[in-house]
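quick one, 427 residues, struct below
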Amino acid sequence: MNRLHRDIKKRGNISIGIIGSGLMGRGLLAQLKKIEGMDVVFMSSRTLKTLEDSFCEVYEKDRACVTRDLEEAKKGIAQKKTVLTDCNHFVWQIPEIDVVVDCTGNTAAGAEINYYSLKNKKHVVTLNVECDVLLGPLFQKLAEENHVCYTGTAGDEPGSIMELVDFAEFLGFEVLVAGKGKNNPLDRTATPESLKEKAAEKGVSPRMLTSFVDATNTMIELNAVANATGLVPDVVGCHGIKSSRETILEELKLKENGGKLTKYKVLEYVQGIAPGVFVMVHSDVPIIQEEMKYLSMGDGPNYIFYRPYHLTNLETPISIAKAVLYKEATIVPEKGFVAHTVATAKRDIKKGESISGIGSKDTFGQLEVAQDSQKKGHLPIGLIEGECFALNDIPKGSIIKMQDVTLDENLLLTKLFTENFGELFHS
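---
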């Protein structure tokens, strides 16, 4: 990491715009304050009062320039202040901002933030994996066209898994399985109402916690890894294996060998090893097997490389620096759409009813091989935003099809997806 510090000094300070003042945005702001040469010059959020409160936990109030006027925002940055606003669109209109960090976790907001930032030649680091799995291939293309970097973040599980995959493959190991621990007990029926008190205890929104508990968030994170590596779920929704650090190697064997998997080159989540990430690798070289045994990595030929932590937004400064300095991505959907996180009904949904998506009482997500979901016309859960209604009765437990709903055509999210990828779902 000394190289990053050295190269930042050579280049000069990196000017950063953060969108979102929740847990991820607030923590990133605090971490960046500790790093020389990385300046947060802009923050925006839907609620200006919450944003001001979050900012003042980290900086003195007189550092802030609170405004809804673009010219005043530009003057504030010239005066070495941090602009605080509820106008997201200022971020791609201010020339001094080098890199935009999307901490919203909202697919509709993310579509606008990422699209217009890249169009205006800003590097983009996204913690919004929910939007990445819908529009990431488009964003990667836009980044290349505008000679900037689009990337997911170090520290979040997809980025941490990708680091292990890159490490293993570079050393010549074959990656058989990649995955993560699930951080919360699994409950597919969870709703924001049922988790309201627990969410308050954890200091997160009920919808965010719901997406964690019902495994939608896990599916989306593995979806990002699928699109970056080509690995696929073994079954729709993955197995959700219950295991421990000591037994995971046995559980990840093929079924004919006493394990849970039907094939290799897959993604999986494991209940019992959180908050870690892992890859299971293979070597058929006897000398390597001998040395791995000597190194207490097991008898082989399969081995687990396990990282027992991921620091989410606290590692994001690494991705910011590499994006700006070298146009180097931590994780991007290089393989295109390898998988989709498809919407599944949590309850019986009646024709004409309004439907909500990620973290709602209505739907949860399941990871599915893209070719299958596209052939069957299954609906990616992240597209359920804004005004969305059921066109048919949808039974509880069934995967929702594109033809079952009306999507909100007023959203840039919907327009970008249908214009660029909608044909995939119409065979």
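The two ends are 48 Å apart (CA to CA).
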